[in-house]
Design goal:
The strands form two sheets. Strands 1-3-2-4-5 form a five-stranded antiparallel β-sheet. With about 230 residues, it is α+β, with helices and mostly antiparallel strands. It contains seven helices and seven strands; from the N terminus they run H-H-E-H-E-E-H-E-E-H-E-E-H-H.
């Protein structure tokens, strides 16, 4: 566990956030079918390393959802975490919009590289791309980035690094906290997502000052809303 400032956000805070209904996805989207996913996977991984490396910095850390051959610590060079994608679905709703974590240019970001288990590439890539990209309208949000591992510099596939074709919310950290403290939708709350991310990072001994500040502010916002 990290020796930095404590984790303030808790399951108790998450439980205080009222549930909400709403769409899982934008109803205007054209969802990716298996054939679309296979074509996209082939394009993304052609002439790329095997086993296929995937850089995880958020929910993939605590819920990868595919078969993993190996994992190793990695630092994304020239990227940092940012809750910048506005959500009116999934973990948000039109009445209580949320935010999704992405990577933004600049700085560095510690996470994990997962290698997709050899022999499972088709089903694993389908699972990853269906979850991360969802629809044709989001299909451009996969890219290869440079990461530093114990092996040295290498390339890894990641998602929503300088996201495109999505609604971006340019908010201060305090404003992000205010939104995440209230956000909820069909898939749960923003506070729950943030807490799982903090705990996943802490378990690995990764401390991201931005994430730790944000979780403290979200806890404070939830407590203030109860007073």
């Amino acid at each position: 566990m990290t020796n930095h400032c404590p984790i303030i956000l808790s399951d108790d805070h998450v439980a205080r956030v009222a549930s909400a209904t709403g769409p899982l996805h934008d109803p205007r989207w054209r969802m990716l079918e298996d054939a679309d996913l296979d074509l996209l996977a082939a394009r993304l991984t052609q002439d790329r390393p095997r086993p296929i490396p995937v850089f995880a910095y958020g929910s993939l850390i605590w819920n990868p959802g595919f078969d993993i051959q190996s994992r190793r610590r990695a630092t994304a060079i020239g990227w940092h975490r940012s809750f910048s994608i506005s959500l009116d679905h999934f973990r948000g709703s039109p009445e209580r919009p949320g935010l999704m974590l992405a990577l933004a240019s600049g700085g560095s970001c510690e996470g994990l590289v997962f290698e997709i288990a050899e022999g499972t590439e088709m089903q694993s890539l389908r699972a990853i791309l269906r979850r991360e990209l969802v629809a044709h309208e989001l299909a451009a949000n996969a890219r290869w980035i440079e990461v530093e591992t114990q092996r040295g510099r290498e390339q890894a596939l990641t998602f929503y690094a300088d996201p495109v074709d999505v609604q971006i919310a340019e908010l201060t950290v305090r404003e992000q906290a205010q939104r995440l403290a209230r956000a909820a939708g069909a898939a749960g709350s923003g506070a729950e997502y943030l807490l799982r991310t903090v705990l996943g990072l802490a378990e690995l001994g990764i401390h991201d000052e931005y994430i730790w500040t944000l979780q403290q502010l979200v806890a404070e916002e939830i407590e203030a809303g109860d007073s």
